[in-house]
Amino acid sequence: MPDLSGIVKAYDIRGVVGEQLDEALVRDFGAAFALLVKTEAPTVVIGHDMRDSSPGLSAAFAEGVTSQGLDVVSIGLCSTDELYFASGSLNLPGAMFTASHNPAKYNGIKMCRSGAAPVGQDTGLAEIRDTVEQGVPVFEGRRGSVTERDVLGEYAGYLRGLVDLSGSRPLKVVVDAGNGMGGHTVPTVFAGLPIEIVPMYFELDGTFPNHEANPLDPKNIVDLQAKVRETGADAGLAFDGDADRCFVVDERGEPVSPSAITALVAVRELVKEPGGTIIHNLITSTGVPEIVAEHGGKPMRTRVGHSFIKAEMARTGAIFGGEHSAHYYFRDFWRADTGMLAALHVLAALGEQDGPLSALTQDFSRYAASGEINSTVDDQVARMLAVKDAYAGKSGAQIDELDGLTVRLAGGAWFNLRPSNTEPLLRLNVEAADRTAVQALTDDVLALVRG
User: Fold this and answer.
1) Of residues 58, 74, 87, 100, which has the active-site annotation?
2) SS3 of 60, please?
3) At what angle do helices 125-134 and 23-37 cross, to 10 degrees?
4) Which helix (H) or strand (E) covers residue 368, if one does?
5) Where would I find the Alpha-D-phosphohexomutase alpha/beta/alpha domain in this sequence (predicted)?
6) What local confidence, expressed as pLDDT, does residue 106 receive?
7) Cβ 215 vs Cβ 173: under 8 Å
8) At what angle do helices 339-351 and 80-90 cross, to 10 degrees?
9) For residue 422, what pLDDT is reported?
10) Residue ranges of domains in the chain, CATH in brackets
């Protein structure tokens, strides 16, 4: 039996094309997915990004699905949140071919059940892996058929219907699509809005010739920052490769933290539904639950990861959720993540008043943060235990292990230390009142982590 543990991750399938992932294997994944969802729907919707390998792999997956008697609706080139839209609006299970921000040699599959419900290790992905490893059973009935459908216009219209920009002042916005799917979706979504787009790297190119399509890495937004300053734009937006995440910079070219965006959008959603529940993962700023509570909402803290966020949203009926990684989840979008909808909220909030984005977001940025710092370690468990032991005896320290190790100190500073699921890394996030306090706490923890 093949061992697929190296490519079947916690939330998706991802690997190097030609080495770990090829059309024959993907065909089996398609058949296994069909077996998983066969009782809930007769059809699967499939989309893909702009990587050279994506069309062939998505076609192979479709062959696997139809080999089990299910039909396929192919929506072709799309962003991941456009695939979620198709899954939600058509109430069909779906599969998206993308490796997000990974280099060109990678590809992968993000899958969901009907209504864009997530498929992760505990919700079907382990079952799919087991089916492929053990051999997909042959189906003797009729093969399914494949039809094509373009949902880009419907997707754009749906998003515009959720955020009213009709009263916005004219805005100039630089958009860096990173040669990813934002270059495909942004022109249609923003069509007819009072927004002048200054496009950067809209050409679809899965080799990512300009920079890696990961806007959370500071080096990948340098061009965007410069263009915002050069053009006197009101804001800048950067999308990752499959355009489900969106990162924001203000009119000065300064990054706006995803925590501040989470708080801003949460306040807007609470206006629509006072008293609603807002999900935030445990690495978002302490300012997020503070601001949510101040505006009458119910903050709910969760583990990191979209499957946990979506599960909590379903359990609590939450109206919105945000993560430090610039994933934003909306109940009005089938609890799925869409950076595009978050971007529209930011621009609507900006356009409703006369001040600059830096002033608007300042109210939502209360503390200083380190960002995520990775350390390669020989023994994750031993290093985590060393940090826990060092802080357990400190006066006023509060320790919890909801996701990794979180330590809150007297005075409000805190840090979270989490092991990577796929690499020998520990990930550290620190927050405190100011940069000096953040650096001091970061240095203390890293000294323990790195020995």
Assistant:
1) 100
2) helix
3) 120
4) strand 368-369
5) 8-134, 159-253, 262-366
6) 97
7) no
8) 100
9) 67
10) 13-150 (3.40.120.10), 154-256 (3.40.120.10), 258-338 (3.40.120.10), 368-449 (3.30.310.50)
